[in-house]
Specification:
The chain is of the alpha/beta class. The chain contains 10 helices and 14 strands. A 7-stranded mixed β-sheet has the order 1-9-8-5-4-2-3, sandwiched between helices. It is globular.
């Protein structure tokens, strides 16, 4: 799904040099590389504060903890997503309120937020799914109206830019009160292990986030709050520093892959290509097709037989998972789990690979009666 080996070949010497320096200095934890990466990422994002941490799930946990919510608070977040955010909400004694997604972009459906707000609602937590921002202008207006916090899960959309109606632009994760991300190796900005970060433009939140990520310490051996041990190590920070310089080029390469797929599947009556949120750029962490009148699972098996990897993001919605089960109906989300399929997309793909993949899909689809997608 992502050619990390091919990507590494282009930056191998830079990585080796940076790692040798860290190994020679033995500056493994909170070394200069971590501080430098934090500064560089803040500059890139236009964020006042970036707090690195151990992984994306920790980033979500720390973000929620920093808000000091009353026990049993409700956090509105999509069911069509990965479980990390929902599990952290529950671990911290709160309740996820699952919401439908937009029928075009599959990010949070802002038209359904008002109906879910109660006296216990404290946070709206949009997930910037597949690589583009949710409708942040509307979300921020709703949050202001009800005096709610906004946590952005931007693990799939680092580098995406959101444009407001007044033409002001902000990077994904810097619009709400707190943004979070993951540097899992397959992410657009990924390290060679685990890593994550939290961003905010709020000084008070930044102080809380830093303390929580470091055992609750305001300074060594002075514990002001209950915290965690969540650190990005120097070796991973060095990788991220190098990759950050290439991030926009990586996004451009992914968009070229997406453009090929768009063209190959354009106007096919059984295949819906990804819609774009009008206000957001797309960095294509995933390129996800929606199939109508075609057995998705059979297609996935067919492609695997041709050595074409694919993934289903996500096969079971959160509200139907045994761990989070809620007695609610979400027809669109439930339909998507049976219809979506993500294709390989990476910075190293060439035309031969793309043609092989798109031809295999189109050839398979020829045997189905074409009907207009609903």
């Amino acid at each position: 799904m992502a050619d990390l080996v091919g990507q590494y070949q282009h930056i191998k010497e830079e990585i080796k040099t940076a790692w040798d320096e860290i190994l020679d200095e033995a500056s493994f934890i909170n070394g200069p590389a971590v501080k430098l990466f934090s500064e560089n990422l803040a500059k890139y994002l236009g964020a006042k504060h970036v707090i690195p941490c151990a992984n994306g799930t920790d980033a979500l946990q720390i973000a929620i903890m920093a808000l000091k919510l009353p026990e049993g608070s409700e956090i509105i977040t999509p069911s069509f997503s990965y479980a990390a955010l929902a599990e952290m909400i529950i671990h911290l004694g709160h309740k996820p309120i699952f919401i439908e997604v937009d029928p075009n972009t599959f990010t949070i459906d802002v038209s359904k937020i008002d109906a879910l707000i109660t006296s216990k609602t404290k946070v709206i937590a949009p997930v910037h799914l597949y690589g583009q921002c949710a409708d942040m202008e509307s979300i921020m207006q709703i949050a202001k109206r009800y005096n709610l916090y906004v946590i952005e899960d931007t693990a799939q959309a680092i580098g995406a830019t959101y444009t407001f109606k007044n033409r002001q632009q902000q990077k994904a994760g810097t619009i709400g009160d707190i943004g979070t991300t993951s540097f899992f190796p397959s992410k657009n900005l990924g390290c060679y292990g685990d890593g994550g970060a939290i961003y905010t433009n709020n000084d008070e939140f930044a102080a809380q986030l830093r303390m929580i990520a470091n055992h609750g310490q305001s300074q060594k051996y002075v514990h002001k709050v209950i915290g965690l041990n969540s650190r990005l190590d120097s070796l991973q920070a060095a990788v991220l520093n190098i990759k950050l310089k290439h991030l926009d080029n990586y996004s451009n390469a992914r968009n070229k892959v997406a453009a090929h797929y768009d063209s190959a599947f354009a106007n096919h009556p059984n295949i819906k290509t990804p819609a774009r949120e009008a206000q957001s750029t797309h960095v294509f962490h995933q390129y996800t097709l929606t199939f109508c009148g075609i057995e998705r699972d059979a297609l996935k098996i067919h492609l695997a037989e041709k050595n074409i990897p694919t993934m289903i993001y996500y096969p079971i919605p959160l509200h139907k998972q045994e761990a989070y089960q809620q007695d609610i109906k979400m027809p669109l989300t439930e339909q998507l789990t049976t219809n979506v399929l993500s294709l390989p997309i990476s910075t190293e793909m060439d035309e031969t690979q793309l043609l092989y993949i798109s031809t295999a899909i189109l050839d398979y689809c020829k045997k189905f009666t074409h009907t207009s997608p609903s």
